[in-house]
Amino acid sequence: MKPTETETPIGGLPFKSRRRPLIVKKFGGTSVANIDRIRRIARLALESQREGNDVVVVVSAMSGETDRLLKLAHQVLPLPEGREMDVIAATGEQVTVALTALAIQAEGGKSSSFLGHQLPVITDSAFTRARIQCVEQGPIREALARGQIAVVAGFQGVDPRNNITTLGRGGSDTTAVAVAAALGADVCEIYTDVEGVFTADPRVCPAGSKLKSIPYEEMLELASLGAKVLQVRSVEIAMKYNVPVHVRSSFSDEEGTLIVPRDKMLESRRLMGLACEKGQVRVELIGAECRPGLVAELTYLLADLNVSVDMLCHSRGAVENPRADISFTLPEGELRRAQPSLEQFLGKLGATGLQISTDLAKVTLVGIGLRSDPGIAARLCRSLTQQGIHVSGLSVNELRISCLVESGAADRAICILHETFELAGEAPAEPLASATPA
Amino acid sequence: MKPTETETPIGGLPFKSRRRPLIVKKFGGTSVANIDRIRRIARLALESQREGNDVVVVVSAMSGETDRLLKLAHQVLPLPEGREMDVIAATGEQVTVALTALAIQAEGGKSSSFLGHQLPVITDSAFTRARIQCVEQGPIREALARGQIAVVAGFQGVDPRNNITTLGRGGSDTTAVAVAAALGADVCEIYTDVEGVFTADPRVCPAGSKLKSIPYEEMLELASLGAKVLQVRSVEIAMKYNVPVHVRSSFSDEEGTLIVPRDKMLESRRLMGLACEKGQVRVELIGAECRPGLVAELTYLLADLNVSVDMLCHSRGAVENPRADISFTLPEGELRRAQPSLEQFLGKLGATGLQISTDLAKVTLVGIGLRSDPGIAARLCRSLTQQGIHVSGLSVNELRISCLVESGAADRAICILHETFELAGEAPAEPLASATPA
């Protein structure tokens, strides 16, 4: 990026009116896995600085390190206290920020590291899965003003009582986007081991192709549906603060995927892509008393159990026999935790039974206007059925259509739908560079 | 320790007047080297708490961990910046405090960990060798009031700008003593891999015996002279704030050595012990101009080079030929750094030469009143000379006599002097328990 004139220069010397573009670059665990790779990202950051940008780098722990550290904690206590877990886990990023700052110095640059408590990155007190409340930008601004590259520890923060917290898996993405939001950065670049966001996982569907851009809302759906490119929370923050996010590969110079407001889209696509979550279970509560607030009660119950429910359907029996059927899906791993409470709940409702179907996959098509065009859901069901794949559940909202199929058929379903909806075909796009927000 | 009545109960309910004894226990790297050992110190701490004490634990990094971390930094940059070194090094203790707190919880106790920046432990900004300026006791007091064992990270602090600092090798001793001083602890127990302070290193001199107690001043001399039991700075703080320090083994229940004010000594010994520093170099500046302030100039020069000079002697020639000879010792490793500046200095003085003798050892006898009794220095020289050991330098002050011998003869010199001064014999001592300060 070249230095840009600010829209409304506010007096002073000419150079005062010249704002340098600010880029936040986030590197994940595989990008800092060893000293050589750390040197590589140091060079990337310096190159960007030499091109005239202010550069902030956010790093994760070396890959495998967080697991190693948490294993230590679990050796001491099977269910370790969250507060102490976070103290241990935060050391992973603490090592990589300092090594990265040193690597930048080794390449002739200036750099300082910043830990979560040094900025600070203030979070709530939900240890091991804290949410960022605010990021203080002062220390980074000072470092940038001194010509330094600021290296910020991802994944970690402090709560208002100065306890160390961590943000959960993928939390460094969220740190990067939150730092970019606080600084009003021009772009937040997420370097990862994939090349961007794909219409479908290319390992499953070889026709899956990289998206040049995707709106925040659709990315949010994809992220929450098992396309493990970004932590969901990071997309929420990007959307809230209008931070352009560029997901790209650490191992190539190619452009990746821009996540932007809908009006900044590079291509006029309606359907974005397909996501798949395997290991799903469908739970049906049969013949419950049909009373007001029934679904609300159920969702509170499930929220208390911290169970991620999806595809909740509620059907009401005939007027003369007002019994309700409720069904929903949840990950297999969470069923064991939820089942006893669900059975108790059933008892209270006088329901006739709990029917559980296992070994399912949720295949989801993400796009815009999916609810308002019933033709899409129809095509989806028909094309799968024609190929002998049974669709055992369907849920539609504005941005996604999800269907339940047997796990064994999921990959084939992805490929069929990819072709049905011609997701590989790309609308002609403007060159990416010109779309980078100034 | 049993709960003790305070001297002057300040009104209120009866139990208010009862102050629980407070013990700070410091465990070094070998005591936290693995999960089993961490469990062991958790049990030790809980046992002490159950006996009615408030307990604060200070821990080092797992042995070898600090070296591993610093090696990472050196791989990136041969001379890494101190600020980033400290960020990396501080993670070692960060892991062990949390594991120790978890281990205490695993044993059924309550515990919280505290990092340097969380108390905070405020230091100056001399990265990698910072000095503690103050320790905030509030967070520890709160934890103790909740019935917790507070686990404090040794070795680390923050400077007034919230940069992470470390205190240098052995810095956890200093943390422990500073925490004990801030809290007005009844005793600071330093658990280590030796059984206490010895009259001479038993590996060198089998007759070396454990001291029951030693005054701060003499311990300071021993610590600074290569008896690697405690960091010198920790003894300085203990002396300044009158903190009783108990050096003892992590691997046995036996009493170790108490470091106390002279008037609390358990035994009436005059000579405390022998220390030895090998790898010494003697530098002689020959025939320098004899002008006022010469020695001051030299010591400033050496201080600028951060060279630890000892045994500085200054002799003045005859009146008709006023040339000065100056000699001093320094560690071999520091000679290379100092030599160019020394040669320059010589040139300015018109001195005739710089004579350097290598491969020397400094053997030091520590005790009280050594200057006022010239007989001791005489006996020292005579006994070594009689056994064929050449004494090439001698320096005497109130608390120590140091002599220079060839490195190869140092161990034998220690044994000879140990016998000459009958250091193995102990004066009858009061039982240790009764001397523990109330």
Automatic annotation (TrEMBL), chains A, B:
Ranges for domain ACT: 283-363
Annotated pathway: Amino-acid biosynthesis; L-threonine biosynthesis; L-threonine from L-aspartate: step 1/5; Amino-acid biosynthesis; L-lysine biosynthesis via DAP pathway; (S)-tetrahydrodipicolinate from L-aspartate: step 1/4; Amino-acid biosynthesis; L-methionine biosynthesis via de novo pathway; L-homoserine from L-aspartate: step 1/3
MF annotations from Gene Ontology: aspartate kinase activity; ATP binding
Keywords: Amino-acid biosynthesis, ATP-binding, Kinase, Lysine biosynthesis, Nucleotide-binding, Transferase
Catalytic activity: L-aspartate + ATP = 4-phospho-L-aspartate + ADP
SUPFAM superfamilies assigned: ACT-like (SSF55021), Carbamate kinase-like (SSF53633)
GO BP of this protein: homoserine biosynthetic process; lysine biosynthetic process via diaminopimelate; threonine biosynthetic process
Enzyme class at the top of the EC tree: transferase
Presence of the UniProt keyword Lipid metabolism in the record: no
Residues engaged in binding substrate: T66, E93
Gene3D superfamilies cross-referenced by the UniProt entry: Acetylglutamate kinase-like, VC0802-like
EC number per UniProt: 2.7.2.4
Source organism superkingdom: Bacteria
KW Amino-acid biosynthesis (keyword) present: yes
Chain sites annotated for binding ATP: K26, F27, G28, G29, T192, D193, R203, K228, V229
Protein name listed in UniProt: Aspartokinase
Species of origin: Stigmatella aurantiaca
